[in-house]
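Feature request, filed as a ticket because there's no other form

It would be nice if the structure record came with a short human-readable summary line next to the tokens. Right now we just get the raw output. Example of a typical job, pasted below so the devs can see what we mean:
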Amino acid sequence: MLERTGTITNLQSVVTTGAAHSAGWLLREGTRLPLPASFQYGGNMTIGPWNEDSQFVIFVHEGAAGDRTLTVVDRKKTGEMVRKSAMPVRIHGHNELEPEEQYIRY
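Raw output as currently delivered:
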């Protein structure tokens, strides 16, 4: 499955999911080479919002056990390795929250 968001400063965020793993990509207009942005072993990934100045985009990881992690990606630091641009974010005690409180709202 391929999911895309709208174009932000000539970049699109793209997710490939539905296989054993999921990945998030940034795709610059006019190129065919996606930049790796986020990766999920198992589970699924969806695209969250871009911030107002379009420097950061959020990818939402949902593991097979239902855990969620947000990955904030800095488009100015994209490189060949995901670790150069992506920062995973989890709140303390997330798994102890009621399921309706774990839902990510944006």
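Something like this underneath would help us a lot:
The longest helix spans residues 99-102.
Helices lie at 99-102.
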